[in-house]
Amino acid sequence: MADVDKNELRTLVADAIELEPEEVTDTADFVSELEVDSLTTLEITMRLEKKYGIKMAEEELLEITSLNRVHELVTAKLAATS
């Protein structure tokens, strides 16, 4: 299984929330610091699913809270499918 490139993830998330990649730090809270709403979380999820060929369960949307957490989720999903 290939490692998930965190900078690729950062760019994907930043594009979805219309920020510069450097504004999306590893630990920035998406809701309280980056003002990500549920619709934007859904957009991030759809982009992750398309790029990595994974499927996110509805309850996992609640776990999309920081770049570190997204990285953990995608890595775990890819590991489970390999």
Automatic annotation (TrEMBL):
It holds the Pfam family PP-binding. Residues 3-78 form the Carrier domain. Signal peptide: none annotated. It comes from the Bacteria. This is Acyl carrier protein. It comes from Saccharothrix lopnurensis.
